[in-house]
Write a structure and sequence with these properties.
Bound molecules: adenosine-5'-diphosphate, magnesium ion
Order of helices and strands: EHEHHHEEHHHEHEHEHHHH
CATH superfamily: P-loop containing nucleotide triphosphate hydrolases
CATH architecture: 3-Layer(aba) Sandwich
Oligomer: single chain
Strand content: 5-15%
Strand order of the largest sheet: 3-4-2-5-1-6-7
Length: 287
């Protein structure tokens, strides 16, 4: 696959928000992180890869009203330009999920290079030069849609709750990421793990954080997303939390998460320059 040749290197960072367990905070994180990055004047494209379409409706696109979206893009029935929609935030665009995405897992089975359909669609549309961040909201499974996300992404961001059951999911996801690194996408890294619906008062939460930090040192974001009613209300108004109630704890936590992410990336790029531009990816791959 031809990478940048005559022009400037493509600049978008592609982040898959993934965890194969449902209800861990993926969609809330994908939507509110994307909105928070857009609020810091980054050009952001949110892509809804979950047939449930919750990320789409969280930015104003109800699944049953979407006729052109992720499915049409992946199946080659629509160009990137046709699939991209605007949102209330000027620098946040979205490719919403249409109802047809439900059938994509099955229809993609027979496609040529079925694991890289999304990656190629983004390349064709020159997506990396048009956005600073592309954020995928993944479904709660490790099927072909998630596989396409992990093959197209540079990094995986893992939202999880601080519960013991959530630890099982983390192990399975880690195995999948390793398998994808050794096959389709050797450059895939884990961007980090973010604790969602976090209640700092419980001992269980502290124990789970300690356990995750033991296995994934340096991966856990300092920012914790608290339980916050505004985060669960705002989707039904078709808005990210920062447009619904900018002062709410939930909106502020996701703005902090975006800042932390930007700072981490900045620190990495500075240390890359120090080491002659060699990107130290291994440092972000857990043992
Ligand atoms: N920090 C939070 N505080 C309160 N409710 C939340 C929070 N994060 C997510 N929720 C709610 O929990 C449910 C599951 O979250 P969601 O982001 O949809 O998870 P997933 O995409 O992993 O299934 C949703 O109803 C969502 O509104
Ligand atoms: Mg979801």
């Amino acid at each position: 696959m031809a990478e940048a040749e005559d022009h400037d290197p493509p600049n978008a960072t592609i982040i898959a928000v993934s965890n194969q367990k449902g209800g861990e905070g993926k969609t809330t994180t994908a939507v509110n992180l994307a909105a928070s990055l857009a609020a810091s004047e980054r050009r952001v494209l949110l892509i809804d890869l979950d047939p449930q379409g919750n990320a789409s409706s969280s930015v104003g696109y109800a699944r049953d009203e979407v006729t052109v979206g992720t499915y049409e893009l992946m199946l080659g029935q629509a160009s990137l330009d046709e699939a991209v929609q605007e949102t209330e935030l000027p620098t946040l665009s979205v490719i919403p999920a249409s109802a047809d995405l439900t059938g994509a897992e099955i229809e993609l089975v027979g496609a040529d290079h079925r694991e890289s359909v999304l990656r190629r669609a983004l390349l064709r549309g020159d997506a990396r030069s048009r956005w600073d961040f592309i954020v995928f909201d993944c479904p709660p499974s490790l099927g072909l849609l998630t596989l396409n996300a992990l093959v197209a992404a540079d990094a995986v961001l893992i939202p999880m709750q601080a519960r013991y059951f959530s630890l099982e999911g983390l192990g399975a996801l880690h195995g999948t990421i390793d398998a994808i690194r050794s096959s389709f996408n050797p450059n895939l890294v884990i961007e980090g793990i973010v604790f969602c619906m976090f209640d700092q008062r419980t001992n269980l939460a502290k124990q789970v954080v300690a356990e995750v930090e033991k296995h994934f040192p340096q991966y856990v974001f300092d920012t914790r997303i608290p339980q916050n009613i505004r985060l669960s209300e705002s989707p039904s108004f078709g808005k990210p939390a920062l447009l619904y109630d900018i002062g709410s704890k939930g909106a502020v936590a996701y703005l902090d998460l975006a800042d932390e992410l930007l700072q981490r990336m900045e620190a990495r790029s500075t240390s890359d320059e120090d080491s002659d531009g060699v990107h130290d990816k291994e440092a972000r791959s857990p043992a």
